[in-house]
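Exercise 3.2. Students should predict the tertiary structure of the chain below and write it as C-alpha cells, then compare their answer with the key that follows.

Predict this chain's 3D structure.
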Amino acid sequence: MGELGSELAEAVSGAGALAHLHELQRIADAHDGNRAPGTTGFAASVAYATEVLATVGYQVTTQDVPYPRFAVTAERTRLTGSDWQPQTLLMDDSPPLRDTVAPLIVLTRFKQLAEGSLDVAGAVVLLARIPGGYAKQVIAASEAGALAALFYTETPCPANNYRLHWFGSEPPPIPAASIAQDDAARLAALAAAVTVELRLDWHGDRTSGVDQNVFAATGADGDARIVVGAHLDSVPEAPGINDNGSGVAAVLQAAVKLATARESVSHQVTFALWAAEELVNAGSSYYVSQLTDAQRQAIRLYLNAEMIASPNYVLYVMRGEGTVTTPFDVYFRARDIAYEYIDEAKVGSDHDPFLAAGISAGGLHCGSVGIKTPAEQERYAGTAGQLFDPGYHQASDTVRNISPAALDWTTRALAYAVGWAAQEVRLA
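Answer key:
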C-alpha cells in the first residue's frame, strides 16, 4: 500500500497550494479584509472552491449549516479627556454597556481580586489573561464588584489583539473585552500617574446565520469512506491565509490530483471544506450530527488540515486517543523530514466532532500562539522565543504570513495520507 499516496505526494506541491492562497487573499481583499462566517467573503470562498472542484469533474454539493453567533454592534473604548481610542474587541455574549464612563483599575496579580486588596467596585479592571482561565477571571471580577474586565495577552507580539470567546451556558456576569499588550501598557503607565477613566460603548446581539459546507467525493461507493477536510472561514479580523487557507489549499490540491483516479480508489474519499469553524467547529459538528448510524460507521478515517504553513513553524502530527498517525509517520520518516507529535486536544479544530462520535481521525498542524523553543529552532530553523504564527487571528494573516517550505511539506504529506487511506484495505 502507499503507491497512490506516493503518486499524489509527487503530483501536488507548495507552489500549487500557494496559487489557491493568492486567490483566497484576493477574495479577502475584495470583501472587507476577511472571509468570516456570514460574510460575502465567505460566500465568495465557497464559490471559488466549488469552481476548482467542479472544473476537474467532481459533482460538488453543499450543506446548509445553521449556527448561532454574537454580532458585535459596538466595541468602542476611549480615554476620557483624550482622542485616543485603543482597539478593543468585545467578548461574545457580553452584557451591554452604552456610552458608560468608569474608572480604570490596573491589576498586577489576579489574586488581588480574591484578596480584596483593591477596591474595584464600579471600575473597569485591566489584567493579564490567564491562558484557558479567563472565564474564572471574569467571574472573580464580577464578584468583586467590577463593572467590566479588559484583558491583554502577554505575548512576544505585543501589538496583537485576540478576541476572547465565552463558553459558558449562561452569558458572562459582566462584559469583557481584549486589548493589545502595548495598549494595556500605555494605559497602565497613565493610571500609575493619574486617575484614568474610560468611556465604553460595548454591545452586541445574539443572532443566527446559515453558511455552507462544501463537498466533493470520488466515485467509489463501498462500505468504507474517508473524509478529508479543512475549514474555509476566517475570523472577522483577518484574511485567514494560514488560518486556514493553508489547509484549504492542501485539500484542494489533493482533490484535484486525485480526480483522475477517483473511480479506481478502494474507498470513497469525500473532500470537505467546513463552514464556521471559527464559531467553534459549527460546520463539522453539524455534518457529524446529521449522519445516520450507518453513515457514521462507514467513515473509517477523518483527515484534518489546520494552519499548516505557520511562518515560524513546527511540523506537528496530531496524536491522541482515536487518532491515526501512520501515513504521516511513513511519509516524513521515508524522506527524513523532522516532525513531532502534538496532543490533538491542543489543536482545537474540525477533527473534534469526529473523534467525539467515535470516528478515527488524524491531521497536520504547524502551530499558532505557542512559542518556539531553542530546541525547536535547532530542528526547524525559525526564531526561538517568538510565536509559531505571529499573524494568528490578525490582519497580518496574509500570503506574506506563511512558510513556503512548511506549506510544501504539509501539502505533500496530506496528499500522501489521502492516497494511503483511499487504498488501505485494513480500513474496510
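Discussion points: The longest helix spans residues 404-423. The longest strand covers residues 197-217.
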